[in-house]
Amino acid sequence: MKYHLAMMHPQIEDEEIIERYVRKQLAEEERKAFEEHFFGCNDCFDKLQVAERFVAGVRDAASRGMLAGEVEGRAGGWSWSARQVPAFAISASAALLLAGLSGWLYFSQMPKLRRQLSQSTENLRAQQAARAALEHQIASSIQAEANLPLVMLQARRDVQTAPNEVSIPSGAKHLVLWVEVPAGKSNSFRLQVDTADNRTVEALDNLQRNSYGALAVSLPVEALQPGDYRISLTAGPSPASLLAEYRLTIRRP
Amino acid sequence: MVSALADAELVASIQNGQTDAEAALYEKYAAKVYYLALRESRLPHDAEDVRAETFLRVLQAIRGKSLRSPDALASFILGTTRNVLHELFHRRKLAGKTKEPEAADLSTPSHEERFLDSEVQHAIERTIVRLKPRERDLLRMHFYEELPTQEIARRAGIAPERVRLVKSRALKHFREFYWRLDRASAPKKIDTPRR
């Protein structure tokens, strides 16, 4: 028990025995002597408990960055404590993992994503173009149109009958066909416009007689290039029967 | 009051068959035995075993009047604790386990972490607030980076004595804050209920 007797409070205070005991920095004999002392000294044991909490708290605060201060110029360079090494290792591992993930994304996923983006952009442009065309078409259809070209179709009775002719002025958007309907029971008609080479340009169903007993049809002139057309009028419902056939020549100034 | 008895009187009371003297003996030394056992073994269940075995042997020695000097009861309890710990480490070694606590169970919180709770963190935070930035640096370099005092003083451009003064002041603040918090809540010690 010589250490217990030898170690008194002034020595404990002067040599910071309690803190050094907590930090495990005492020599073997000093450690044993201090244990002998605090087993018989409640005051020192209480101080020891507080010191344990203080050191644990300070280290915890430092690890959470709460003790980041202002001292600069680490002339001796970084000295890695035993606590910093694992922390650095974990951070470095996380950084490497992140870098690997980023690389994989860049080299593996980015080309695919770029292709998808390019495809989406093209789709969007096509949709925008279609929308613009539709808007243009709607705007055209709702605008008043003067000097509308009109042709009153007369049925072809033989091959020598002169075709109906119409000259579409520039700027016209629609051609109006006026069709006299032969007398009959049918109330629903179909009008089909074909080119000379039998390509159907327009087909309109469910046409009704107007108050003059005729059919009035508006065709967009965009689809009517200069040339000869054959227009067939049939009566519905099916089986449809041909009522009349007209020849039409479109001219442009 | 039995609890206020000196060690020699406690020993005499136990030898006279007073069971409350045995309880008083336990209350007086249990925390110290457990603290030392936990510090050395790092494992709470081993520390509890060490404490139980220590008091069993101490009480047997007192009852059997084999304690040479009743005035040296504290030293006897410490010596018994060390013996029990030594036997624990010997058993660990035979079982193929190292004596080193870190390797014994890596998932076990360190001895230091057992002292860390919300009250300690709160008291430390309040202490830090009262410190100047340079003083916080000193604490970090001393307790966290574990730099020598001379090196800390050199880096901070202050006298080595100043490092000690800052530590002392911070500890004083911490003790005050912690005691206030400790009084406000139920007292907690690094201890477990008596078995």
Describe the 3D structure.
The complex is a heterodimer of chains A (253) and B (195). Chain A has 253 residues and is an alpha/beta fold. Chain A is 44% helix and 23% strand. Chain A has helices spanning 2-6, 9-14, 17-22, 28-40, 42-63, 84-142, and strands at residues 150-153, 164-167, 174-180, 189-195, 200-207, 214-220, 227-235, 241-251. Chain A has a 5-stranded mixed sheet with strand order 2-8-7-4-5, with no helix packed on it. A 3-stranded mixed sheet of chain A has the order 1-3-6, with no helix packed on it. In chain A, α4 packs across α5. The radius of gyration of chain A is 50 Å and the shape is rod-shaped. The model of chain A is unreliable at 1-5 and 72-80 (pLDDT under 50). Chain B is built from 9 helices and no strands. Chain B is elongated. Classes of the chains: A alpha/beta (253), B mainly alpha (195). Chain A binds chain B through residues 1, 4, 16, 19, 23, 35-36, 38-40, 45, 48-63, 66-71, 73-76, 79, 81-84, and chain B through 29, 31-32, 35-36, 72, 74-75, 77-78, 112-113, 115-116, 120-121, 123-125, 128, 133-134, 136-137, 139-141, 143-147, 151, 154-156, 164, 167, 170-171, 174-175, 178, 189-190.
Secondary-structure blueprint:
The complex is a heterodimer of chains A (253) and B (195).
Chain A: H1 2-6, H2 9-14, H3 17-22, H4 28-40, H5 42-63, H6 84-142, E1 150-153, E2 164-167, E3 174-180, E4 189-195, E5 200-207, E6 214-220, E7 227-235, E8 241-251
Parallel strand pairs in A: 1-3, 2-8
Antiparallel strand pairs in A: 3-6, 4-5, 4-7, 7-8
Chain B: H1 7-15, H2 19-41, H3 44-63, H4 73-94, H5 101-104, H6 118-129, H7 133-144, H8 149-156, H9 160-184
Helix pairs in contact in B: 1-2, 2-3, 2-4, 3-4, 6-9, 7-8, 8-9
